[in-house]
Amino acid sequence: AAITAAPEMQADYLKKHDEFLAQTGGKVLLVCNMVWSNEEFEYFGLEQFPNLPALIKYHDLLQSIGWFAYFDAKSYLGWTFNNQGEPVKPEFPPPPAPGETPIYKLVFFEMKQAYYEEQEKVEELVKGQHAMAKQIKREIVFDAYTRMNNEENFSFMIERYPNLEAMVAHYKNLEFTGWFKYSKARSYLGRAVSGALSGLDS
């Protein structure tokens, strides 16, 4: 998201935003400042709603106050599924400990044809990634299927790394092992500023 409202208007709009979330049962799980890593948006975040009607009502309320004239954003819907393709309740890792300042990475995925044609090799690479993740303390905060909402990406996820060096090490490993033969992605880096999963909210 990018905020174009004047500073004196932002507080009023954000207060309404919080009220609309409460009315519809929505939750802000994570907000990350990303302006230092790209020139397109200031923040990315993760919101959770109890159902699709609640989400639609939330956006109707935002539209009623002219929200979209002052806040530029791109949104993607996601559902969590198990290995059988059945919807399941998402499970989230605990927030970072006080004093920790992890790096968050929002990643949009699309699988290449080789992913489906070389499943044995892919499974081998995934096992190696899991081992690497434990070594560098990488965590998946959220992972969701989003194809039903757009034609560009298969899924999106938010990763958490203890520091920038760990994130760089992970992606160097992906490149070295040939993972990008099977997947293409668009990523955004950020640091948490609020949200239930950030460990920063009171």
Structure description:
α1 (7-24) runs antiparallel to α2 and α4 runs antiparallel to α5. The two termini are 23 Å apart. The chain has helices spanning 7-24, 52-64, 113-117, 119-136, 164-177, and strands at residues 2-3, 27-33, 43-48, 71-72, 103-111, 139-145, 155-161, 183-194. The chain is of the alpha+beta class and 202 residues long.
Question: What descriptive keywords fit this protein?
Answer:
202 residues, alpha+beta, 6-stranded antiparallel sheet, two-stranded antiparallel sheet, globular
Reported for the largest beta sheet, the result is:
6 strands, antiparallel
| H/E topology pattern | EHEEHEEHHEEHE
Q: How much β-strand is present in the residues?
A: 25-35%
Helix segment count?
Answer: 5
Distance linking N and C termini? 23 Å
Note poorly predicted spans: none
- Strand sequence of the main sheet, in spatial order? 3-2-8-5-7-6
Instruction: Report the mean per-residue pLDDT as an integer.
Output: 90
Q: Can you count the beta strands?
A: 8
Cα-based radius of gyration, to the nearest Å: 18 Å
Structural class designation: alpha+beta
Which term fits the overall shape? globular
Summarize it.
The chain has 202 residues and is an alpha+beta fold.
Write the layout of secondary structure elements.
Layout: E1 2-3, H1 7-24, E2 27-33, E3 43-48, H2 52-64, E4 71-72, E5 103-111, H3 113-117, H4 119-136, E6 139-145, E7 155-161, H5 164-177, E8 183-194
Antiparallel strand pairs: 1-4, 2-3, 2-8, 5-7, 5-8, 6-7
Helix pairs in contact: 1-2, 4-5
